[in-house]
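dude i think i finally got it to work??
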Amino acid sequence: MESSSLVTEQKKMLILKSSDGEYFELEESIAVQCGTIKNLVEDDFSHIPLPNVDAKTLRKIIEYMKKHAQKNDSNEEEIKDFDEKFVQGTFNDVYELLHAANYLHNSGLMDLLCQSIADRIKDKSVKAVREIFNVTNDYTPEEEAKVRMEHLWAHEGGEIDESLD
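look at this
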């Protein structure tokens, strides 16, 4: 008599804790897309506190990681569409995601978000970029005038508009 047994693969799960105390359960194979998490897993952590990532942001990052864990040659267009929709949102939301992706060391997500921000500030004036990134102009009026004359092209361009909402 032949015996058959059903062998199921047990997926190792991790518990991620956001900065505002929310818990998320995620497969280790997906979570290790982030270098920070991968390093902690290598040190035998299964409950991972993420003090620099709030729940709203972590939820979005998990959505991204799950989708990209499914990436293969046959669904590249689907992933591309997902990425385009993923970066739609306010500039501040994308910027928050960027900070979290940097902290988590997720290079694929960092590349996507940096490109989105670059696309949004493309053709903006120096004044607009300073305002967007809250950069203080430390030039004296004379220095500003000199730089402006030397680099006229950098001072042309649009101001802040709906692309940064």
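Confidence is low (pLDDT under 50) at residues 1-5.
im so relieved honestly
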